[in-house]
Design brief:
Elements lengths: L1 H89 L13 H43 L7 H7 L11 H4 L9 E2 L27 E2 L1 H11 L18 H10 L3 H33 L3 H22 L11 H5 L2 H12 L6 H29 L1 E3 L18 E3 L22 H10 L37 H4 L4 H30 L68
Antiparallel strand pairs: 1-2, 3-4
């Protein structure tokens, strides 16, 4: 009986063990199948979120570069219109076209202003064209090379997919694990942003909801293959917390290629408009006084255009403490008023040497006002380093403090760069993937069975063209610094300033020469085409300033009739003329 009982007990125990083993096998296999489905779903969902986020990154590039492209295209249209009107004013619509020409000094004010406008608007047109094209090229380059959707490869999809027979390859302690007992593997230590896992054990942040420190081996495989890409290098670099995504860094670096083109196209367009308003003022005043003799109309016109200039400057510039000529533009706005006062004396009914001297004094003051305005333009356009970091506020422009921009236009450049860091609650999935790769998914390389994914073949390196086929102009772009637009605008402003300084010098020469002219009268052809007066010499020409009168000069003497004989009687009507005496 005892033997039968023992056999029965052994059979019962064996049956119970077999039944328990079958139950444990079925239980863990069911868990494996459930986790396998969740693994593939999680892989596809994470890649879907990553693709959506990279799609947002691509929109960031298009939005920031599109801002420059839109501005530059609009400014190209504006400057082209000003160039067209400037061409009309300087050609068919110039003053003196339909009447007596104004004095030479007044023509210098009008012509100098209109061609300054053409110069500045032309520079703005060219700079805006460069900025637009550079921004478009940068956006295309980033979108086609760097910022691409992380579409999973076929190999990655195969790795994420798990066959049911893969359960047979698991460790026996996972296949027959008793519920509520420890798993075979330590839970992965998910790396926080900017830090590495502190140890192999301890409660995992990623699996904190289970309050488990261990996981099945297939969970370990999921982390290593799907998250870490099979990389088990624990010495990699981690991205710090709130670090800006890579596309922001690339875009900010690319913006340095067109930043100054954008900034100085904006500034040059402003200077072109200001010069255009000067030209329109002188055109209207010249028309009023030269052709209409509208004295009071002449005095009222500068008020309108000077007010427009002042309002535009008020909108665009910011008076800061590091400017060398603060408020100098106020005197520049007064130049047309001095010119009008000079015209008042120039067209006065009675002549006076004193008023001629006062007229020339007013002309010099007008020239000096224009010279001071040009120097003020240079002062406002001078780039200066930022004193402090601009605050990143929603709806406002921002750029790093390392950029040197004109302080006078710091509030109205409408230039924005990518943020330097992410805001609270924002995450970069690509950086998280990099962090997981850097720590091997949180799995210790020493304890992992190294079931890695097959290494992908590196793409073939693109070789440069042979040196003997290189273009001789290949290094030209490398020699150009990013501040080339500033240097171009600086030359344009100095050219304008030199123009007014030159006119002050030659006006002094004209005062010394007096009424003597260096050129033939207006309307006369040049000597190369004038054969009628080639034999003339200065002694044959009488000027109003000559001390003596030429022989036979009868302007101030009445002519006398000379008769050779007595007056003959008049012939009767119809009989023909009388005989000569």
């Amino acid at each position: 009986f005892s033997g039968a009982a023992a056999a029965t007990a052994a059979g019962t125990a064996a049956g119970a063990t077999g039944a328990g083993g079958m139950w444990l096998f079925s239980y863990n296999k069911e868990n494996f199948g459930y986790d396998a489905g969740m693994r593939f779903g999680r892989f596809m969902m994470s890649r879907g979120f990553a693709n959506a986020q990279v799609g947002q990154y691509r929109e960031d590039i298009q939005g920031i570069t599109g801002m420059t492209i839109t501005k530059m295209d609009a400014w190209q249209s504006v400057t082209t219109l000003f160039l067209a009107v400037g061409a009309a004013l300087s050609c068919a619509g110039r003053i003196g076209m339909h009447g007596a020409a104004p004095p030479g000094w007044y023509c210098a004010l009008f012509s100098g202003s209109i061609f300054m406008s053409v110069m500045f608007n032309g520079v703005a047109l060219w700079l805006s064209m460069h900025a637009s094209l550079r921004a478009q090229c940068a956006a295309t380059s980033l979108l086609t090379r760097k910022v691409r959707l992380p579409i999973p490869s076929t190999s990655q999809l195969d790795q994420a997919r798990v066959f049911a027979s893969a359960f047979e390859r698991q460790e026996y302690r996972d296949i027959f694990r008793v519920p509520f007992m420890r798993h075979a593997e330590d839970a992965p230590q998910a790396a926080a942003a900017g830090s590495k896992p502190k140890g192999k054990k301890g409660e995992s942040q990623e699996f904190g909801s289970t309050s488990r420190s261990t996981v099945p081996s297939w969970i370990r495989d999921e982390v290593v293959l799907d998250k870490a890409g099979g990389v088990l290098d624990e010495e990699g670099e981690l991205h710090p917390a709130f670090e800006a995504p890579d596309h922001f860094k690339l875009l900010m670096k690319a913006q340095e290629e067109w930043r100054d083109y954008d900034v100085y196209a904006r500034i040059s367009m402003l200077y072109g408009v200001v010069s255009f308003l000067y030209a329109v003022t002188y055109y209207a005043v010249g028309y009023a006084i030269c052709e209409l003799r509208g004295f009071w109309a002449m005095w009222s016109l500068p008020v309108v255009f000077a007010t427009a200039q002042a309002l535009i400057f008020r909108l665009d510039i910011l008076r800061t403490g590091n400017q060398r000529l603060p408020n100098a533009e106020l005197l520049g706005h007064m130049a047309p008023f001095f010119a009008v006062a000079a015209c008042t004396l120039e067209y006065r009914y009675y002549f006076s040497k004193a008023q001629v001297a006062v007229t020339w004094g007013l002309v010099f003051v007008a020239y000096f006002c224009h010279l001071l305005m040009a120097l003020r333009m240079l002062d406002l356009a001078w780039p200066v380093p930022s004193v402090k970091e601009l605050p990143e506020e929603p709806g406002k422009q921002w750029w790093p403090s390392s950029w040197q921009v004109p302080g006078g236009f710091a509030k109205n450049l409408w230039f924005i760069t990518p943020p330097k860091k992410l805001e609270d609650g924002q995450n970069c999935l690509l950086h998280e993937m990099d962090n997981m790769k850097a720590v091997g998914g949180g799995i210790s390389a020493a304890s992992c069975r190294r079931r890695k994914a097959p290494a992908a073949e590196a793409p073939a390196a693109m070789t440069d063209a042979p040196a003997n086929n290189a273009s001789p102009f290949a290094s030209m772009e490398m020699k150009r610094s990013n501040d080339l637009p500033w240097r171009i605008v600086r030359v344009a402003i100095l050219t304008a300033a030199f123009q007014w300084f030159f006119m002050m010098v030659v006006s002094g020469v004209e005062i010394i020469l007096g009424p003597e002219t260096l050129l033939k009268p207006p309307g006369e052809p040049p000597w190369i085409r004038d054969t009628k007066y080639r034999a003339w010499t200065p002694g044959m020409v009488h000027t109003s300033g000559a001390a003596a009168l030429p022989e036979g000069y009868r302007l101030f003497a009445a002519s006398k009739a000379r008769y050779t004989s007595a007056k003959a009687p008049a012939a009767p009507l119809g009989e023909g003329p009388a005989a000569p005496h």
